[in-house]
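Section 5.1 Outputs to date
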Amino acid sequence: MSDESSQGFNIFCRRDEPDIRCAVPEERPVPPFLEAPVWEFAGRMDRGALASAGFGEREIAEAIQAQGYYIFQRVKP
């Protein structure tokens, strides 16, 4: 089994508000609400990178367990 810190996420962003993001674990299906034209695929990120961007491991884990995805807002420096 792979290390949890290397778990990959597919990242989606809203087209009208690109700082609103949704992280979906690669092994999970993409939720139906992430459809075009409202959302678009923005790339991939591993759990460590997501956590280092200021999002707590606990919050990420709880959101994934409860909903299957994690919605967050990207904050520009």
